[in-house]
């Protein structure tokens, strides 16, 4: 036994063994340098956390494993050579027994060392197969859900004429026989199946973050195809800057409720989580486009639509509470009637948008671009039931229609609003017809900054020939009662303003 241990020590002290160790270390350092000079994207062995950690452990442990493999292989060769040449027989039966046991032990160790990377490879392969099966299952779920979005059903119902009256077959006297209704087979969307498909897509997006962007694109495409802006009922809004519709007044009862599937799809988009929105940014999805859609009579609460494109869309009679629209595009959109309670419209681009006849308590327009927007008939005042007033801080109100507004609470109370509004440009070309101008009466308790702010507004509006007001103690401004074309043109030239200056 002592002789065997001496030989083992002698083999490990062979001069070229340290060179093997040094070579393995050099290979490890070289691999590290290659990783540093490679792309900045971190190396991942698997999307699964524990398997990725196991992969890195294998890489770090590989030099030790290689050294053990070479050492065991060398010692196995030495022991085997002793047994084959018969040196162990001459040294005695005791040494022969120890050499045989050593050979068996080294052979077992060699098998274990070789089996270690094979076992890791098997685990990695199994994980890849499992992932592939899961992705295939998710793909099948998406395909099935997309099929559900196009579901239709056959319905038998009584035919109606263009006026909506029920039709009946004529009798022998050419009069309607009310016992014989005219029945027809009609194909219409299967709303129940479609809503189920939308919820299925939402569940897939929650379970598989990598498929989230694709699902959002599917839902947006579905909304754009099934609820275009052309289907919106245009209520009469004569006199607005971008109004081209009919002058016939449309009753709100004539506007149908938003289809349940569209209501559900938009709600699902508004329920995106923070991780899902981060995924959209990382994948370069850009702005989710819902431009040119009809969302009349949509009802939403606690939804996040930040950064979406709603340009040219219709939100007539929509009721929105505690929703986030920050950074959205609302250019030439129609948001008349309805309400937006405590909503966040910070930094929105709402050029030419219509907010007429809308309840806006607690809504923030901070930093919004409201160029040529219209708030005619909307309520910007503080509402006792809903709390804070509308915030117009840093808003661009150039050419904005503020007709019939009570501006006391929107502009006259909080120093936050006053200090952030640039009077010279914020109200250029804006209309204040029949607006409450109590904001022009300086309160005795107002700060110097506050009084200066009111003086600037009074000076600007007083020089506007469209107003024609002489006595600022009057509570409301009159409507147009004179031809202002020439006066308006000369007033613009005097002040040196042009429309091009603000179309940015």
TrEMBL record:
Residues covered by region (Disordered): 233-253
Chain segments annotated as transmembrane: 16-34, 54-76, 96-121
SUPFAM superfamilies per record: Pentapeptide repeat-like
Keywords linked to the UniProt accession: Membrane, Transmembrane, Transmembrane helix
One Pfam entry name: Pentapeptide
PANTHER family: BTB_POZ DOMAIN-CONTAINING PROTEIN (PTHR14136:SF25), BTB_POZ DOMAIN-CONTAINING PROTEIN KCTD9 (PTHR14136)
Record protein name field: Pentapeptide repeat-containing protein
Lineage: Bacteria, Pseudomonadati, Pseudomonadota, Alphaproteobacteria, Rhodobacterales
């Amino acid at each position: 036994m002592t002789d065997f241990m001496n030989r083992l020590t002698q083999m490990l002290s062979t001069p070229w063994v340290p060179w093997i160790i040094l070579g393995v270390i050099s290979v490890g350092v070289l691999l590290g340098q290659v990783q540093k000079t490679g792309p900045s994207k971190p190396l991942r062995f698997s999307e699964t956390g524990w398997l990725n950690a196991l992969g890195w452990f294998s890489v770090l442990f590989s030099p030790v494993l290689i050294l053990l493999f070479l050492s065991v292989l060398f010692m196995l060769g030495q022991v085997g050579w002793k047994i084959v040449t018969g040196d162990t027989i001459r040294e005695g039966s005791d040494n022969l027994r120890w050499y045989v046991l050593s050979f068996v032990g080294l052979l077992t160790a060699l098998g274990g060392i070789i089996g270690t990377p094979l076992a890791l490879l098997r685990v990695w392969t199994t994980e890849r197969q499992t992932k592939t099966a899961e992705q295939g299952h998710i793909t099948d779920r998406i395909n099935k859900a997309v099929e559900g979005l196009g579901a239709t059903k056959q319905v038998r119902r009584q035919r109606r004429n263009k006026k909506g009256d029920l039709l009946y077959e004529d009798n022998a006297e050419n009069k309607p026989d009310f016992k014989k209704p005219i029945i027809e087979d009609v194909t219409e969307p299967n709303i129940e199946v479609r809503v189920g498909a939308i919820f299925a897509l939402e569940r897939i997006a929650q379970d598989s973050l990598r498929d989230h962007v694709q699902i959002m694109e599917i839902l947006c495409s579905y909304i754009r195809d099934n609820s275009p802006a052309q289907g919106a009922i245009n209520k009469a809004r004569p006199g607005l800057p971008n109004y081209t519709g009919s002058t016939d007044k449309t009753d709100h009862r004539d506007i149908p409720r938003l289809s349940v599937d569209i209501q559900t799809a938009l709600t699902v988009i508004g329920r995106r989580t923070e991780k899902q929105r981060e995924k959209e940014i990382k994948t370069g999805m850009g702005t989710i486009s819902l431009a040119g859609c009809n969302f009349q009579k949509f009802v939403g609460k606690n939804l996040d639509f930040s950064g979406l494109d709603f340009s040219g869309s219709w939100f007539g009679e929509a009721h929105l509470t505690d929703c986030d629209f920050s950074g959205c595009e609302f250019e030439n959109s129609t948001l008349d009637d309805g309400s937006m309670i405590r909503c966040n419209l910070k930094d929105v681009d709402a050029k030419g948008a219509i907010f007429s006849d809308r309840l806006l308590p607690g809504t923030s327009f901070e930093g919004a671009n409201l160029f040529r927007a219209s708030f005619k008939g909307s309520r910007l005042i503080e509402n006792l039931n809903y709390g804070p007033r509308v915030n117009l801080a840093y808003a661009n109100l150039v050419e904005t229609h503020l007709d019939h507004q009570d501006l006391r609470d929107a502009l006259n109370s909080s120093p936050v609003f006053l200090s952030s509004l640039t009077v010279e440009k914020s109200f250029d070309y804006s209309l204040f017809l029949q607006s409450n101008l109590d904001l022009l009466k300086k309160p005795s308790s107002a700060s110097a900054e506050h009084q200066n702010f009111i003086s600037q507004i009074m000076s600007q509006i007083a020089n506007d020939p469209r107003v024609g007001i002489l006595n600022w103690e009057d509570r409301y401004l009159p409507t147009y009662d004179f031809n202002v074309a020439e006066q308006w043109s000369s007033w613009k030239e005097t002040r040196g303003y042009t429309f091009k200056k603000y179309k940015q």
